[in-house]
C-alpha cells in the first residue's frame, strides 16, 4: 500500500498537466483570499 501511494504521488509530481491545474487552483485561491481580505479595493 505504501508503494502504491508513493507511485501515485510520483505520477502526480511527474504530470505537468496536474501540476499546471494545481498551480492555477492555488493562484485563484490566493487571489480570492487576497481580494476578500482587502475587501476588493483593487478593482481590475
Can you give a write-up of this model?
The chain crosses the membrane at residues 20-39. Keywords: Membrane, Transmembrane, Transmembrane helix. The chain is mainly alpha-helical. It has one domain (2-37). The protein has two helices and no strands. It has helices at residues 2-14, 16-37. The longest helix is centred in the middle third of the chain and has 22 residues, at 16-37. The protein is elongated, with a radius of gyration of 16 Å. The mean pLDDT is 81.
Secondary structure: elements and pairs:
Elements: H1 2-14, H2 16-37
Summary tags:
2 helices, elongated, mainly alpha, 44 residues, membrane
What characterizes the major β-sheet?
none
Q: Segments where pLDDT lies below 50 for 5+ residues?
A: none
What is the ordering of alpha helices and beta strands?
HH
Cα end-to-end separation:
48 Å
- What's the domain count? 1
Portion in beta strands: under 5%
Percent helix, as a range, is over 70%
Transmembrane segments: 20-39
Keywords: Membrane, Transmembrane, Transmembrane helix
Please give a quick description of this structure.
The chain contains 2 helices and no strands.
Amino acid at each position: 500500500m505504501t508503494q502504491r501511494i508513493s507511485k501515485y504521488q510520483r505520477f502526480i509530481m511527474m504530470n505537468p498537466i496536474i501540476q499546471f491545474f494545481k498551480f492555477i487552483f492555488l493562484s485563484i485561491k490566493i487571489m480570492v483570499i487576497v481580494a476578500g481580505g482587502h475587501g476588493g479595493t483593487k478593482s481590475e
